[in-house]
Specification:
This is Tripartite motif-containing protein 64-like. Helices cover about 40% and strands about 25% of the residues. It has nine helices and 18 strands. The strands form four sheets. It has a nine-stranded antiparallel beta sheet, with no helix packed on it.
Length: about 450
């Protein structure tokens, strides 16, 4: 092939974005082809609808498969260019006057045929330069794909982190209301402790919000670093074979280091400050042996529908098929039903990580499914989210940004004032207090523990 034909051949295999020979070419809806890395960077900002960089035609699909034929032709074009370059003076061995057409991976250098047979290289494996370079490009393309995938994952995590910040601020505002309401039931001597508690919450919340803000900044900067590294690797793939092979090891180490520097998300958690004398006061309303010693095995699930949530218990003999999200649980129901007064009891969750407890509308237990809806219950539950157990409440569903109790949980029912509160007995602190809302039906305590 003469130089004019070679030039024409390579022109047809040139990406119109980077003006280099195709790397992992893809063909979009309009028929034009581009390097996948170039198209990814071009479309990175996520503009909608996506358009062809060449003809501005709309691309209906966001993802495309590699054009295998174009990829093979691009490889042949690079090889033809490399063969042409081998005739240049810098590619000729000064000792043997032959082209350096072999790559020694052990020595990371280019050799001619006679040099490869010398004692210092004879025991090494040698490959044609073009083949070694193409294999190196494949390694870089796979690494680039992995980096881009991490970057896309970070986009999702970044959105979650930003959403978590907003949720946390709303929760802090709600927790201020809970703490204020709790202290209003205390003696006037506790006013000073209330103020200290609120100030400590304010300062701690400020610090955690700053951590969340810094986390969002770190993730944003990390995504930008990945983008810059991706762009650098794209340019590296287009470099001459010899230059590419000589820096490959350092480039791979650089990408490994970038992967290890992936920032971790923040898990906001407030300190549970003890309320002086709260358990002594609550024990004045203590009810012992609140639950039946007879436990029934049900299949329990927490279903959510918009702002509504329900707890569903299914008897083990019930004929309906199990849904995938339903887990087998042991349920203990209260032996008493409350229609007035103040009552306090404690439940032990030491040996379980997944549980749900609280009060609900008195329901006759039969062999049919039992559904407890949000307006009929005040519940606290522990469930696993992203390999971490967290506390949640219903009406409305809220995540509790406090430490999960590992021992006994106190439940205080003030029926006449329409209030239910949960306490960490070990720490003597408030977990959550439902804001007052009048009850219009009898309430029964219960504890549901997931079977191991």
């Amino acid at each position: 092939m003469d130089s004019d034909e070679l030039e024409a051949f390579q022109q047809e295999l040139t990406c119109s974005i980077c003006m280099n020979c195709f790397l992992d070419p893809v063909t979009i809806d309009c028929g034009h082809s581009f390097c996948r890395p170039c198209l990814s960077l071009c479309w990175e900002e996520g503009q909608t609808p996506r358009s062809c960089p060449e003809c501005r035609g709309i691309a209906e699909r966001p993802h495309f498969k590699t054009n295998i034929v174009l990829k093979r032709l691009a490889s042949l074009a690079r090889q033809a260019r490399a063969d042409h370059d081998h005739r240049s003076e810098e590619q000729i061995c000064e000792t043997h006057r032959e082209a350096r057409g072999l790559f020694c991976e052990a020595a990371q250098t280019l050799l001619c045929g006679p040099c490869s047979e010398r004692p210092e290289h004879a025991a090494h494996s040698h490959r044609p330069t073009h083949r070694a370079a193409e294999e190196s490009r494949e390694k870089l393309l796979k690494r680039m794909g992995f980096l881009w995938q991490i970057r896309e994952e970070m986009k999702i995590i970044l959105n979650q982190e930003a959403k978590k910040t907003r949720s946390f601020k709303d929760y802090v505002a709600l927790r201020k209301e809970m703490i204020t309401a709790e202290y209003q039931r205390m003696f006037l001597l506790l006013r000073e402790e209330e103020q200290l508690h609120l100030e400590a919450l304010e300062q701690e919340a400020k610090e955690i919000c700053e951590q969340l803000k810094e986390s969002v900044l770190r993730m944003t900067q990390y995504r930008e670093r990945l983008k810059d590294m991706y762009r650098e690797l794209t340019a590296m793939c287009c470099k001459p074979d010899r230059e590419l092979l000589q820096v490959l090891v350092n480039v791979l180490k650089m990408t490994d280091l970038a992967e290890m520097q992936k920032p971790q998300s923040v898990n906001p958690e407030l300190t549970c400050w003890p309320v002086t004398g709260i358990l002594d006061i609550l024990n004045n309303f203590r009810v012992d042996d609140i639950l039946s010693q007879t436990m029934t095995i049900h299949h329990m699930s927490l279903s959510e529908d918009g702002d509504d949530a329900s707890v569903i218990f299914r008897d083990e003999h019930h004929g309906t098929s199990r849904q995938p999200q339903i887990v087998e649980s042991v349920v203990s129901w209260g032996v008493r039903v409350f229609t007035s007064g103040r009552h306090y009891w404690e439940l032990d969750v030491t040996h379980s990580s997944s549980w749900i407890l609280g009060t609900c509308k008195d329901i006759l237990i039969t062999d049919t499914s039992i559904s407890i809806y949000s307006e009929e219950a005040c519940v606290l539950f522990s469930k696993k989210v992203n390999n971490h157990y967290s506390l949640f409440t219903n009406t409305p569903p809220y995540i509790q940004y406090v430490k999960r109790p590992l021992g006994r949980i106190g439940v205080f029912l003030d029926y006449d004032n329409g209030a239910v509160s949960f306490y960490d007995v070990c720490r003597g602190s408030l977990i959550y207090s439902f804001l007052p809302s009048p009850f219009s039906f009898p309430l029964k305590p219960f504890l549901c523990v997931r079977s191991l």
